[in-house]
Amino acid sequence: MLAFAIFVVTLVLVIWQPKGLGIGTSALGGALVALVAGVVDLPDVLVVWDIVWDATFTFVALILISLILDEAGFFAWAALHVARWGGGNGRRLFPLIILLGAVIAAFFANDGAALLLTPIVMAILVRLKFSPQASLAFIIATGFVADSTSLPLIISNLVNIVSANYFDISFNRYAMVMVPVDLVSLAATLVVLGWMFRRDIPGQYDVALLEEPRQAIRDPLVFRAAFPVLTALLVAFFVTAPLGVPVAVVTGSAALILVALAGRWVQGGRSVISLPKVFKGAPWQIVLFSVGMYLVVYGLGNAWLTADASALLTWLGEQGTLVATLGTGLASALLASVMNNMPSTLVGALAIDQAQVSDLTQELMVYANVIGNDLGPKFTPIGSLATLLWLHVLADKGTHISWGQYMKVGIVMTPPVLLAALLALWLWLPVV
Predict the structure, then answer these.
(1) Is the whole model's pTM more than 0.90, yes or no?
(2) Distance from the CA of 243 to the CA of which of 15, 39, 118, 259 falls in 20 to 30 A?
(3) pLDDT beyond 80 at 20
(4) Contact (CB, 8 A) for 419 and 172
(5) Is 266 helix (H, G, I), strand (E, B) or coil?
(6) How far apart (Å, rounded) are the C-alpha atoms in residues 98 and 102?
């Protein structure tokens, strides 16, 4: 009960953030209490750090890359092109924005998509004079797709990195399994969002109200460098995977290249992009959160949660691969929706590792746990950091979405997309 009480208090502080208390500070505080209380010990700290360090620094590097490219105008340029491709047809623009969100989520993580695409889309909607109801449809779609299409690559979600590292899944193997599953999830997302907001999407808009995409570019050198750097980064992931090079090293190298380019001096003795602003905007609290929250959950797992969850998964495994896949994914999704997907991921990984199941069933469970923790958080606003960040961005822009509004949408949208992704995994994994 002590481990559970520490977890609950820590989670409440992480979500509530009283007086601006950082999520990392709250999580680290909970970890220190758990350490002092004997719920975890010093060797556990080393175990947890070994699990999360690669994921944490990869995430920080990805966000640095995203923020630098955002300051250079890269994402605004892309969004303006997409808005023009819509050709003045709102029903064409809606899926195009969703596809843009899927691409950003795949390469810059779900948090990057939520943080960067949302304000850009909102600015475009204001320029196009969309009604509040129509704007809300696009905003909800942007927030939802950030998580629902964060499956394809290890770098697409912090959950993916932690799971892949824990079970020693290579970048290549992960992509081979999850890219097709992500395409199914994307298709289901397009169908569900299109159906849900079919009456809110405007038929027409005036393309002439949009600025030229080239006007969004603020640092031409960094902008031009983005394409070769990102291409090289993607290739490097696949090339270095068989060599066992940590993902954080590859991603960090790309981040350092862009930092060097962005920090160069131009005429007038200053850089176009403010690196202090970029570094200030980087999610350093995530580093503390990853270590702290995972340590708190590790203590909860030591107490009883891992054993109980493992027993449940063993029973699911005895019912066949379909039940094991759907059951693991649904259980992970529900746990993530009330616990937050970061601690839920570790609970699932620990339980799967101890479950008495066949090799195929275990592999299905590993990926089902990823799917559940990537998509399941959309049930509630507290399910993922990406959603909390997204709501924070909206609030800063004057758009407030209540928990009731969010859950009304999330409960309708999440189940069909989650089910489609899990079924795709069950059908695809045995043949690859």
Answers:
(1) no
(2) 259
(3) no
(4) no
(5) strand
(6) 6
pLDDT in tens, 116-142: 888 888 888 888 989 888 888 998 898
End-to-end, the C-alpha distance of the chain in Å comes to: 43
Encode burial over 28-64: b for 16+ CB neighbours within 10 A, e otherwise.
Answer: bbbbebbbeeebbeeebeeebeebbbbbbbbbbbbbb
Which residue has tokens 């499956």? 151
Helix (H) or strand (E) holding 76: helix 74-85
Which residue has tokens 């850009």?
120
Q: What average pLDDT does the segment 95-123 reach?
A: 87
pLDDT for position 423: 98
Q: DSSP assignment of 147-193, as one string?
A: HHT--SSGGG-HHHHHHHHHTT--HHHHHHHHHHHHHHHHHHHHHHH
Whether the predicted pLDDT of 254 surpasses 90? yes
Residue 396: other Cβ atoms inside 10 A: 9
Q: What is the DSSP string of 293-329?
A: HHHHHHHHIIIIIHHHHHHHHHHHHTT-HHHHHHHHH
3-state helix, strand, coil in the chain (%, to 5): 80, 0, 20
Q: Is the dihedral of CA 107, 143, 13, 47 positive or negative?
A: negative
